Every structure is written in C-alpha cells, then in structure tokens.
Amino acid sequence: MPRSQRNDNFIDKTFTIVADILLQIIPMASGEKKAFTYYRDGMSAQSEGEYAEALQNYYEAMRPEIDPYDRSYILYNIGLIHTSNGEHTKALEYYFQALERNPSLPQALNNTALICHYRGEQAIQQGDPEIAEAWFDQAAEYWKQAIAFAPSNYIEAQNWLKITGRFGE
C-alpha cells in the first residue's frame, strides 16, 4: 500500500486528500502526476525517519520528472537524507546537482555551507588550521549566497560571518 494511503494523523490525511484532489483537477501529464505522488510519499517517509523508503520514492520520482525546478527539490531532499546519515560527500553531490537546476535554492546553499563549516571544525580538531580556514572561507561563500536569496533567514550564519569578519568580503 502506498505511504500516502497509510497516513495516521489528521494533518497528513488532510494534506493527502487535498493533494489527491489537486492531482485530479489540475491538468498535468501522467508522468508529472506519478512524479508528484512518489515525491509526496518520499516526503512522508522522510518525515518519519524512514530514509531508505524515502530515497526509493525520490529515485522513482526522478524518472518521470523532467522539470529542472521540481527535480532540484527532489535532489535537495536526497541530499538531506545523506546529510542526516552522515554521508556528507554524497550529500554535497546532490546539493550541487540541485543547485545546477535551481541556483536560487537557499536551503541547498545553506546545507552546503554547513558541511563546509563542519569540515573546517574537523580540520581544527586534527590540528590543521590552514585547511580549516579554507573550509571556513568556502562555507562563508555559500552562506553569503544563501543569505542573498533569503535575507531574513540564517541568522546564526549571519552572526558567524560578522564575528569572523567574513560578512563584507
């Protein structure tokens, strides 16, 4: 049974009903409907921590989805799962793919910056301040881009940029 038919709480059931109605009344190709259904099931599985199931649904959603903007969100969510699993290199690959299709996706820029910052912290712990600075500089560049698209978001990043003197660079 598809995940969309297994939702237990009121909000998920309501969302599913509204989404199903929209799928019926909005004119779109059957491939787009199929992609949306897989994407919706992937988001549901992801929100419940069922990452393997979510990935399976996202990969299935990629097959019929041809719109670059919509694909960017699927790729972004795949990146999120890899980030949650500690697979940062894989996550970066998916964030970069998402950004290729949608360069103004601030959450992908933010998450890329977070991974760069984390790698900078790791370099400090390993006693390599030069490598750490390079990672921090990279994080700053991604955060500045994310903030440019969403100025009221990423307050902690903005503070970090100011404190470290990287905001105006």
TrEMBL record:
Membrane-protein topology: Peripheral membrane protein
Localization of this protein: Plastid membrane; Plastid, Chloroplast thylakoid membrane
PROSITE patterns listed in its UniProt record: TPR, TPR_REGION
Signal peptide coordinates: none
An annotated GO cellular component: chloroplast thylakoid membrane
A Pfam family annotated for this UniProt entry: TPR_1
InterPro entries, alphabetized: PSI_Ycf3_assembly, TPR-like_helical_dom_sf, TPR_rpt
The TPR repeat ranges on this chain: 35-68, 72-105, 72-105, 120-153
BP GO annotations: photosynthesis
Keywords annotated in UniProt: Chloroplast, Membrane, Photosynthesis, Plastid, Repeat, Thylakoid, TPR repeat
Family the UniProt entry places it in: Belongs to the Ycf3 family.
Chain's role: Seems to be required for the assembly of the photosystem I complex.
HAMAP family per UniProt: Ycf3 (MF_00439)
Protein name in UniProt: Photosystem I assembly protein Ycf3
Organism: Austrocedrus chilensis
Underlying gene: ycf3
